[in-house]
Amino acid sequence: MAEVVPDGESRNLRVLAERIRSRRTTKLFLRQKVSKQLVLDAIELARWAPNHHLTEPWHFYMLGEKTTAASVELIRTIVTETKTAELADFKAKSAAAIPGWLVITCKKSQDELLQQEDYASCCCAIQNLTLYLSEAGIAAKWTTGLITRDQRFFDLLEINADQEFIVALLWYGYPKVLPTQSRKEVAEITTEKP
Ligand SMILES: Cc1cc2nc3c(=O)[nH]c(=O)nc-3n(C[C@H](O)[C@H](O)[C@H](O)COP(=O)(O)O)c2cc1C
To answer: Are 101 and 71 in contact (CB under 8 A)?
Structure first.
């Protein structure tokens, strides 16, 4: 059993708090690849997220080189269709520089409450996963860009859009830089009731 110490004084608690606080989104990565085993270990941890009715609604698609290259070209196509060819070229080049691609989907449900709860579970799973990666020195960017809702992406990954939807396209890698972030004060976001 872990030591029970009030007021967050235990070393473990302080380390954990710092881990959670220091996870940062970044999109600028070094070229260095992340080991496949490390990502599998992160997925192993992700699945321990709470999930109501034990639906385990998530699925993880690890994209290899061929699928990543096709995804980059799909981003180029989508941005050309919706914006400009110049921006498409920039987005495609940026995407091509990203060393790690992981897609997380959630099971679709006809039941509105179950769908909400399943989505919440998938988000918890992603947080587990990114915290684990962060502890290993790997940063990520959770994206929900147009590609995550484009049928061509589903076709590429052979995902049945009637059964699953994409919660995140997670880009990951060893960060070039980590941005800083701030949050509102606890008092601002907390209301105590008698
Ligand atoms: C559901 C969800 C979708 C997101 N989609 C995007 C996105 O499409 N593009 C992006 O730049 N960041 C996206 N983010 C990342 C947030 O912008 C980021 O978490 C936020 O800026 C706070 O930074 P932090 O993660 O370093 O605390 C997303 C985050 C979540 C939880």
So the answer is: yes
- Domain holding 99, by residue range, is 27-171
Angle between helices 112-135 and 11-22 (to 10 degrees): 100
| Among protein residues, the one whose CA lies closest to atom 19 of ligand 1 | 25
Q: Is residue 35 part of a domain?
A: yes
The structural domain count of the chain equals: 1
**CA angle, 89 then 90 then 94, to 5°:** 115
Encode pLDDT of 81-104 as tens digits.
999 999 999 999 999 999 999 999
Identify which of 27, 75, 123, 144 to mutate to test ligand 1's pocket (most ligand atoms within 8 A of the CB): 144
Prediction pTM value: 0.95
Lay out the sheet containing 58-62: strands in order across: 58-62, 100-107, 164-173, 139-143
End-to-end CA distance of the chain: 32
